[in-house]
Amino acid sequence: MDNIWTTEVWNELKDGFPDNSNGSRILITSRIKGVASESTTHFPPILDEDESWELFRKKVCVTEEFPPQRCANSYLCRRTRCKDILSLSYTHLSQHLKSCFLYFGVYPEEFEIPVRQLIRPWIAEGFIEHTGSRYIEDDAKDYFDELYNQSLIQVASSRTDGGAKTCRIHALLQHISICESKEEKFLEVFRHVNLLSENKSRRISVQCSTPRYIASNLSHATCARSLLFFGHEKLSFDSSYRKKQTYGDLDPNHWKWVHEKFCLVRVLHFGQLNIYSIPSNIEELICLRYLRIKSDVLKVIPASICNLKHLETLDLKGTFLNCLPTGIWEVSSLRNLYMSGPVSLPDHFYPDVKALWKLQVLSTVSLNPQNVSLIVQSELLRKLGI
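Predicted structure:
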């Protein structure tokens, strides 16, 4: 009995098959771990690349020789039986889980995704229904676990406490997420600059040459809520940066491009881009909730970043700052602050103002007695790296 979706269905069916101890067995399959746990369970091992290729060859070939042509993953985006079968897992999800699943399309194929860098953009995007009595990160973790329990994602590595540290999604399921995203204008992935579109998608993932993508997309503003760069080049991303031979006559004023074309962005993930500075007018990105910069040449962040009233996650892990601006204590919405550290925290001159009262993660900092007294006031702090 193939593809049982709920325990209720199985409970109704099994009454028609009484156990009369004659040795017969019923084998059911399900992608839902909760359904499988109702009986004796076998989890098929994940095949490695050689085993997968051998199974594929045996299923496809009727002769010993395998034809030289390879099938493309884009084949799945057409209305094939394979796509329809895989799409059942997606259509079975709740609306909020559908958004979380589609978001996996922003990452490159075979990308090992840190779970914290996955669920916090979910939160910033508003995908997570907050119960009010728990940390919203715990609610987001429940969403992650549900996708895992439905066999839609894989855990790649675990933390010391057994929780998922990194994850990945199978290439075939990722293609399903990208195909569905295009239909729903949820996401657009740019792997080649010549595949430009006026789709007005809410999320943009740039996996091609970053400067050429920017040069090709200066014509219109966008309603995108997420902008993520996954290019491999170490491009200087700075308004003072000047033309370099590698990129010809490309206009280097990239921050200006972000402000003009992505003024409503909530999630900014700059990947491997070398960002030398952050402009003082970053406060104009009034909707920004998640900012991820990994740049070993960024040394200072402007005081104006403290005026981002909705900033929840400031992830500067991979940068080597000397200190943070004084106003960082007054960013009341900030919940997660990551640095490579140790970074000195500034003195707090307003003892009557409750400092960073929503802060849950602070890593990695050097502390003095005044800072310690301020940090211990936080009732929500869950992780401190010193």
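Summary: Confidence is low (pLDDT under 50) at residues 239-252.
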